[in-house]
Amino acid sequence: MQFPHTPLPAQLPLFEVFMAQPMPTTIKEVLETPWSAEPEVFSELSLRGAAENCLNLLAPMLRELSEQQHARWLTLIAPPPSLTQSWLRDAGLNRERILLLQPNGNKSALQLTCEALRLGRSHTVVSWINPLNGAARQQLISAARAGNGQSLNIRLG
User: Which residues pair with 44 in a beta bridge?
Assistant: First the structure.
């Protein structure tokens, strides 16, 4: 028995989007094209799966952030319970450059993250805030700009 062969659609539409935009034709056009000098201060990462697997995916990124030659801290706010001091050590993170903070009854994770960002004592503040709505995202962006730092929110699902 034969099944009818249905050809897959070509990938051309993806490239047509890029081709429809005018491309600079001279070096002068390239050099005169405006460039956004303002760096992104907020990023969000969404991971799904077993907590242990998600932490294993995060380990290299957090290790690199903890090893930056900065006078400022890598701050982790409201991490999952499985992210412990022993996990930090086993993952090879520089624990001398990390602040690990948990929210308490006085401050939520969002408030604590905004405060850590605004103070400017951390090059990167990693938070685990879920859900994160648009207003909260804007608060994190404003706080990161005020403290000249980076905000990374991680959503585990």
Answer: 153
